[in-house]
Amino acid sequence: MKLKDISKRIDATIKGDDSLEIDAISSLKEPKTNSLIYISNKKHITRNLLDSKSVFLIDESLIEEFKDRTLLISKNPQISFVKLLLLFKQKKTNLEQRQINDSNLIYIGDYVNIGTNFIYGTNNVIEANVTIGNNVTFGHNVVIHEGTTIGNNVTIESGSVIGCEGFGNFLSDSNEWLHIPHIGNVEIMDNVRIGANCCIDRGTIDKTLIHNGTIIDNLVHIAHNVTINENTAIAAKVGIAGSCNIGKRNMIGGMVGIVDHITTADDVIISATSTVSKNITEPGTYTGIMPISKHADWKRIAYWITKLDKITKLIKLKKK
């Protein structure tokens, strides 16, 4: 679309060349030529962004940061960004019932590419623009949403949903929750096993990525833009919030909760029912379990627990 047409549909004004053609939305990490990038904060401006041939959606406070650049300026850029995502979100699925390899019936969308030795149960759905490799097995009631890529030797057990919308929302000025559309996808690489009733969300703009050799138990939720690196094992009822980067060969115990934007090192073990609320930068075994209490009390207790070793040393010194 031409920039002048986009600006009218997202309630933004143009500074610069309104005849530019825009063919994609980019993330801050991977700016693309002829794309639009939403920047909400000065701290997100990098040399990589400034060197890109992109157009930036901003509010008026950031204009001076982008001299001689074409800009889209909005009084409420977050809402403009949601409108922008809706413009570029195109649903192409036109499902039809098929049968492959003399097996059960399956519902398949347009432009689906499936490799050899595909085994599947009943009532599966594969939406448009999905690629599936060789030696892939689905249980029953598996749903693969549009744009998903699945590698070779992958097993997805019954009831799992891959590529659904993520939980991206923000509270508007009128105190209404507005959903942020997701136009990214999910990529599952080779030799991955996904248990029953798991949910892996598509990326907001980029991809959610499950690397080679990962094994995932039943009832696991992996949110948008998460990367799970090679040979990681995730036990049942784990929840991993958006934009986390989980290292190689991690072992994550049952019912672990990992908050958003967390990075873990390689070779990390996280004990069952732990909460991970900060980055883990070194290999090792980690546990984060405390009794539930009022949040203010919990913060005070957590602070003193981290000081116990120093307090103990101080007491020993005084006794001497």
Mean pLDDT: 92
CATH architecture of the largest domain: 3 Solenoid
* Share of residues in strands: 25-35%
Strand order of the largest sheet: 6-7-9-12-15-20-23-26-29-31
Question: What's the helix and strand layout?
Answer:
Blueprint: H1 3-9, E1 13-15, E2 24-25, E3 35-38, H2 47-51, E4 55-58, E5 71-73, H3 77-88, E6 96-99, E7 105-108, E8 113-114, E9 124-126, E10 131-132, E11 137-138, E12 143-144, E13 149-150, E14 155-156, E15 161-164, E16 169-171, E17 177-179, E18 185-188, E19 193-194, E20 199-201, E21 207-210, E22 215-216, E23 221-222, E24 227-228, E25 233-234, E26 239-240, E27 245-246, E28 251-252, E29 257-258, E30 268-270, E31 275-276, E32 284-286, H4 295-319
Parallel strand pairs: 2-3, 3-4, 4-5, 7-9, 8-10, 9-12, 10-13, 11-14, 12-15, 13-18, 14-19, 15-20, 18-21, 19-22, 20-23, 21-24, 22-25, 23-26, 24-27, 25-28, 26-29, 28-30, 29-31, 30-32
Antiparallel strand pairs: 1-5, 6-7, 16-17
